[in-house]
């Protein structure tokens, strides 16, 4: 039996940069680099290069640095990058190409830890005889997550399984990254127009402990697997074994959404979008849970036509299902009932207590966001997402002023982010689907 010991050589191979000073320096290089390139860009404009040429070069370099730093650090930095990646559809076209590549790569890539490190974690979590639990185990990781990596293996009973192993030092790194990223939230705001980065980071920090314990993730996945067992449209792999830093689930092979986004047929795009929307809106009713990590790396389209959903580290528990107030707001916006819409928003805490806001201004602000529900079938496009981001981010507009008067209550933050993330994926997919019929079936309050 192989001995697992913690030698100084092993510590030198740690998978995640753990020293706070080193990680802080890497994260600090992002806003400093952005500022430095902006100054350099002005210099190049003085030498005769056009603004378009300079901006394209700056965007490409900033995107590459974003991926290099966040991807290398993993932990909270990579998780932040993954969260941002679903919003890249809203980035204007002239900036989108480099960011699209860099942010999308964050969804499925990170430098792996060594086989020795992986074996050590498995021994600590599953016991020194961990190898006896598997018929075979592939040391080369099949995929990377924000705080762990996934290995393909065969369980002792012959089932193909996915083994997710947490990076050593992930807990320390995650806390350090999120603290540091919160300091730079305003600078990161420029990377994704129309997205409020500060509450996104606050929410990631608040849910940190849940994601660090894979037993919680396993329990979440068991809940989803039970709710969707035998479903003809959704597959949630069953959990085989779990420990605080290791979770073993059934292995599933399919076409990742990232691949469909890159090169899928229109039929694949539409069906992937429909299945994602069905899963998103039906989960609170069927499982009293909401999958809260929407990025393309967590979804696959299977050959039998189902969607496979993975990674349940971030899950919202909704024992009473989706809030009916959400359906009411959608319905009032669609019907032009601006006064009633404002009343619901005030009741739910969306209007700042010290704000004077007109019902018609709030209605005008929200109406474009329910456009997908005004048609029998709606085509989600990057152009539509960009238009919404620019509209809400235009400092000269009434919509911007109205948005400043509104608030996002803490108990709505997760639902808002997950819904926005799902819509971001639909726009990346360029999917056309009948969203209204899905909302009518599953969203409480909408049909009333």
From TrEMBL:
In what ranges is there compositional bias, type Basic and acidic residues? 1-13
CDD domains the record matches? ABC1_ADCK3 (cd13970)
GO MF annotations for this entry? ATP binding; transferase activity
Coiled coil spans: none
All residue ranges annotated as the ABC1 atypical kinase-like domain in the record: 105-321
Question: Which stretches does the entry tag as region Disordered?
Answer: 1-20
Question: Per UniProt, which keywords does this protein have?
Answer: ATP-binding, Nucleotide-binding, Transferase
Pfam families tied to this protein: ABC1
Q: Which domain of life is it from?
A: Bacteria
Q: Which family does it belong to?
A: Belongs to the protein kinase superfamily. ADCK protein kinase family.
Q: What is this protein called?
A: ABC transporter ATP-binding protein
Give the species.
Prauserella flavalba
């Amino acid at each position: 039996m192989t001995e697992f010991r913690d030698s100084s050589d092993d510590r030198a191979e740690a998978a995640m940069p753990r020293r706070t000073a080193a990680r802080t320096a890497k994260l600090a290089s992002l806003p400093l680099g952005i500022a430095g390139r902006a100054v350099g860009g002005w210099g190049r404009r003085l030498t005769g290069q056009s603004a378009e040429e300079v901006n394209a070069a700056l965007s490409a370099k900033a995107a590459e640095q974003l991926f290099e730093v966040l991807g290398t650090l993993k932990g909270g930095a990579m998780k932040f990058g993954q969260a941002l990646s679903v919003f890249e559809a809203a980035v204007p076209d002239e900036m989108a190409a480099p960011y699209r590549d860099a942010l999308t790569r964050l969804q499925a890539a990170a430098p792996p830890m060594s086989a020795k490190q992986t074996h050590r974690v498995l021994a600590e979590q599953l016991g020194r005889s961990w190898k006896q639990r598997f018929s075979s185990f592939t040391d080369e990781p099949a995929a990377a997550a924000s705080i762990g990596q996934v290995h393909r293996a065969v369980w002792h009973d012959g089932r193909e399984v996915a083994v997710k192993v947490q990076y050593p030092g992930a807990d320390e790194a995650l806390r350090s990254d999120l603290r540091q990223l919160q300091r730079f939230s305003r600078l990161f705001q420029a990377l994704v127009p129309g997205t409020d980065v500060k509450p996104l980071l606050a929410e990631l920090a608040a849910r940190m402990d849940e994601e660090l314990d894979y037993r919680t993730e396993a329990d979440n996945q068991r809940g989803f697997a039970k709710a969707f067992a035998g479903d003809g449209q959704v597959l949630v792999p069953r959990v085989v074994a779990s420990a605080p830093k290791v979770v073993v689930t059934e292995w599933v092979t399919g076409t990742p959404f990232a691949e469909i986004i890159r090169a899928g047929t229109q039929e694949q795009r539409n069906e992937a979008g429909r299945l994602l929307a069905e899963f998103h809106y039906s989960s609170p009713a069927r499982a009293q849970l909401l999958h809260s990590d929407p990025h393309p790396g967590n979804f696959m389209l299977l050959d039998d036509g189902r969607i496979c959903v993975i990674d349940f580290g971030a899950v919202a528990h909704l024992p009473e299902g989706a809030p009916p107030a959400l359906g009411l707001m959608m319905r009032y916006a669609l019907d032009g009932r601006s006064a009633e819409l404002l009343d619901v928003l005030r009741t739910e805490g969306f209007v700042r207590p010290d704000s004077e806001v007109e019902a018609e201004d709030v209605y005008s602000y929200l109406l474009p966001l329910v456009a997908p529900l005004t048609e029998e079938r709606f085509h989600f496009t990057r152009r539509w997402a960009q238009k919404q981001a620019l509209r809400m981010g235009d400092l000269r507009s009434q919509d911007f002023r109205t948005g400043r008067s509104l608030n996002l209550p803490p108990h709505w933050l997760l639902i808002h982010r997950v819904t926005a993330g799902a819509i971001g994926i639909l726009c990346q997919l360029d999917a056309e689907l009948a969203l209204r019929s899905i909302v009518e079936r599953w969203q409480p309050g909408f049909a009333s």
